[in-house]
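Re: How this chain folds, sequence and tokenised backbone to follow
How to read it: Take the token row as a discrete description of the fold.
Start of record: The labelled sequence and token lines come straight after this line.
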Amino acid sequence: MQQKYKVFLNERYIEISRPVNIKLNNPYVMFGSDADAKDVKKWFNSFVSSKLKEIKLFHQDPDGFFRVFQSAYIRIPAAGGVVVSGEHILFILRRGVWDLPKGKIDKNEEPSSAAIREVKEECGISGHEIVKVLPTTYHIYFCTYPGDRKKWIFKETIWFEMKYNGPLIGFPEVKEGITEIKWFPKSELNRVSVNTYENLKQIIDLYK
């Protein structure tokens, strides 16, 4: 029972929670107990066309409403890894933005297995092992790829911290738009934060 969810739409922020500590000067929407996917889609279309940077969605049952919220989009489950080697963390430069290795979970694949596989494929390393589960991130994006083109996607990414004792090298998966991999010292994570995605900052901040 989480009771609060953070969802990102590029640099914009949506919070889903119970209606507590409501401040009238902050934008919010109250959803009733009978709210369904159509209500979410109607609200979302108005939010996209607005200039609001953030908004709170209130519901008496945030967990239940979050499931309804997700059903309004095409869902893609993903998994990724924060690979730690001593005082260094592995990042990839994808389309000019620092990112963490991650990818879609295949059918019948466990999230942990998908995370290990994606790190290996995108970074060209092996021998990394999962240490613990990290907070899950959520973001929405407009798909421009064939198949789901011109549709809104809801991506849930399950993150794992991984340990790695090999050499601090690797090979970027160029066909996935990755042009560089880099082992950043934890002391330099602010350099990453100025050129990364908003939804990843909550993961990166765990290591500062």
